[in-house]
Automatic annotation (TrEMBL), chains A, B, C, D:
This is Formyltetrahydrofolate deformylase. It comes from the Bacteria. Pathway: Purine metabolism; IMP biosynthesis via de novo pathway; formate from 10-formyl-5,6,7,8-tetrahydrofolate: step 1/1. It comes from Heminiphilus faecis. Residues 10-96 form the ACT domain. It is an enzyme of class 3 (hydrolase).
Length: 289, 289, 289, 289
């Protein structure tokens, strides 16, 4: 469980695998007074790439926060061909939720938010329907209705973008938002839009996956949370889970059983994103433990 | 657990749903001295079809075994538009196993067979490669090598069919048999050939599903046992299961983790088939409990 | 999925197993104009007991609703030594929720309730702490604070009972209510109080199961919903589930992972109870599908 | 998947958590020409202990294999208060299997062994019953029958120990061996005897767990593999898993469903042990990925 008051730096990095790379990075942190509180690394031996997430306490770190990146660049980034992001735990991320008419994922997220389970801000909920305004009101969160039609899509997305900008949104969660986002919109938030698809991807891409699952007679149904990319339901998968069904289950039963899957799988993905434990590469994710 | 020495009749039936149908069938069994030891039924309300599996002891049943079908036809089949099969527990089914080079499913099946877990006979194993002859020999089961090439397929399948006939085979289990059977061959054993596909169908149909799963970056891998139909990997699904994987798993790891899934999922399907608990309809299965 | 507007009778029964019992009951329904929409039965062969749940439409049933029990008694109950309950779908059950300070199970229940997922009324929430009044207010449900100490227990439970009576409560859900109910109180609601225990019972009975699980070094943690009986955590189990943990998980992590388990496992049990699909016997449950 | 021909050193270590410890160890490997192929570490923050498994290729390592321990002691062990074991991949471990009458775990292990899935030698199987001699013969492995009674236990265990010594056995797998080993015997193989218990420990310790599970009316049954310690079923847990059961399952059904669980859970534990990925501490395990 994340402590709320910690003051740490989080380095997510990848580079060509090379001898001594762990020693180099950990020594940099150590000699400058940082105490490592998390380190997880993974080497993709087939492609020869080294991935690492390392987090250290800043209280006695002698390099000022706003200089760490500079030092890191000078000392290591070019030399070791590092690709990295540096984040600080004290910066609380700001998350927008997009919904349509179904409330189960929204309630699950808001219940966690309000109970302080997640270190995140949720300043706004956006919907193409007014139905869930009542939920937003229960939790006292601004709710913006942006109805979308094929004709108004570009204009409405521009409006959405304005709202997101005005709230300084860092990332977006599509909590059963039943609209396909435009490529333009998606490119503004690369790997910062999390969707829940109600099937075990790549099975049943697109609309009405429970109907398709019913028709195929599967014995398990699934849900998949993934980052949104311009290819429909084809972005990097963050988390998946399944539940058992039988011949007795109608499409309505699948929908009902699926709801519990969807909300849990989406919330697990959002939590990992909040904790900055996801690294993406080649349209896949590395999800650190 | 099935008792080996029981003497029961097993009726698998479906018909248009209609009032009183359960009463009619159960009364038929009851008034004629049959003791029902199993009854499970299911109504597909959307299509209005009634499905039932009922099993009763024959010891005091006053209708002779070889006349039950006749009586049943006369009294009920036409009147209620019943579609049924009638089986007797004392008839031990005879099962052939088809394999290629991988032994894990074969060992799992033979270990159950030899320990008496299944009420079945396995008189022959057929393979397109000689590699697993040694396993067949361990268990003292005839092993027939029928190598198959595109050119020789028709001829070799004819040879296989001869062998199956000579052993009075009732159904076939493809225990990681790496050949696609011809439509002709499949039609001789309608819903009597069980395959294990190493993916969560309908995801990753066809060859090399673990490679495809790896490339897609899924977080779960699956296995699916199904009856073979002329459409590749599209027959009625009997059983599915999954296991969790992470970014750390290479294709080889998926193959390895998948093996345990494959053998368990295949054996569960074979057991249900042996117990005559599977009814097929509309390219789906009803698997009774 | 349950249709809200259906008008059915639900018979839950058990009796000594005897030939023809299914035929007798189904014929009674059939000849009197009832259309069976659900039938599931189970025979405990070891103890020779027959259990059945049967549900039929009342629209054309010729026996008036308030006479069905009488007819059933006269015709069958004594003759077949039946033990049964008869319920009607149009009677909406009334459920009270007991909570302490944790909100996750409460939110999960209320989100389902408010979205119309469950055919139930929730007229009151009772708590020994004021903390969750704010949640009750979000959903506009009366919230009664009844603080309990060892000294005041009898008096406070009497007060709770008064409230429950005033709201005509049919059954109670303990949604992480951190008080042990007295035997007297429990006996007023036999198998009508559902609890969620945060372990895989019977492992880790009593207080602080996550601490105990951590200390034992288990690789899975569980949650168990059960009917409350005077023996602590020993009532009939309705539903259980587990999630995987590793050596990396602290007690706080177990608590966090456990929350998702608890809410889902509790809600599954509550739903089965609402649907009148649970039969209890010998301190066990039969949960019909 | 383990490559069979690799030449690596495997260091399993723990020590008081201290800044720079990763850098120190990884640098030692790096500067001496070792290429790290695996590193996983874990910090128990509550108790302040650092655990690590690191594996590196020896091909260009400048310290000779038989000197690595000495150098490591001199340079680091005392200074950092390290507790470590050093293993070499080229040393194939030798494993003995103890069985009684049930064959499912034995077959599962031998099928993996014979197919080359595990980098291990199995030179002998020991049993207190002659029943499974036929299985040993199928796989051409010596089978020693050592019948045990209360009176002969000490003597028979001495005989077992002799056999194990004669085969240079490194560790023992109890594949449903139905005898309790003496404390003396266990102390000769500290955390080198792996047992499979047919319950979700700590529920249902001791004899007949499936009967106890049936009596309690659980909805899931489990299996637990653990290192054997003198306290019955209380040693460090390596792996656990569960499967769903219902009120329909008799004790015999639980036994049958449990068999699949037992064999898979035991084999997963044995594999982790073979790969030297298990570290024990405080009666718990750290199982590296």
């Amino acid at each position: 469980m994340e402590k709320k008051d910690k003051n740490t730096a989080i380095l997510l990095m990848h580079c060509p695998d090379q001898p001594g790379i762990i020693a180099v990075i950990t020594e940099f942190i150590d000699v400058n007074g940082g105490n490592i509180v998390y380190l997880d690394q993974y080497v993709d031996r087939i492609n020869g790439i080294f991935y690492m997430r390392v987090e250290w306490e800043l209280d006695n770190f002698i390099i000022p926060k706003d200089k760490i990146g500079e030092y890191f660049d000078t000392l290591y980034a070019k030399r070791y061909n590092l690709n990295y992001t540096l984040k600080f735990s004290e910066k609380r991320q700001r998350m927008a939720i997009f919904v349509s008419k179904m409330s189960h994922c929204l309630y699950d997220i808001l219940a966690r938010y309000i109970s302080g389970e997640w270190d995140v801000e949720i300043p706004v909920i956006i919907s193409n329907h007014p139905d869930l305004a009542v939920v937003a009101k229960q939790f006292d969160i601004p709710f913006e209705v942006i109805p979308i039609t094929k004709e108004t899509k570009a204009e409405m997305e521009a409006r959405e973008f304005e709202i997101l900008e005005s709230y300084n949104i860092d990332f977006i969660v599509l909590a059963r938002y039943m609209q396909v986002l435009s490529e333009d919109f998606i490119r503004r938030y690369p790997h910062h839009i999390i969707n829940i698809h109600h099937s075990f991807l790549p099975a049943f891409v697109g609309a009405k996956p429970y109907h398709a699952a019913y028709d195929r007679g599967v014995k398990l149904i699934g849900a998949t949370s993934h980052y949104v990319t311009p290819d429909l339901d084809a972005g990097p998968i963050i988390e998946q889970d399944i539940t058992r069904v039988t011949h007795k289950d109608t499409v309505d039963d699948l929908v009902k059983k699926g709801r519990d899957l969807e909300k849990i799988v989406l919330s697990r993905a959002v939590e990992k994103h909040i904790q900055r434990k996801i690294l993406t590469y080649n349209n896949k994710t590395i999800v650190f433990s």
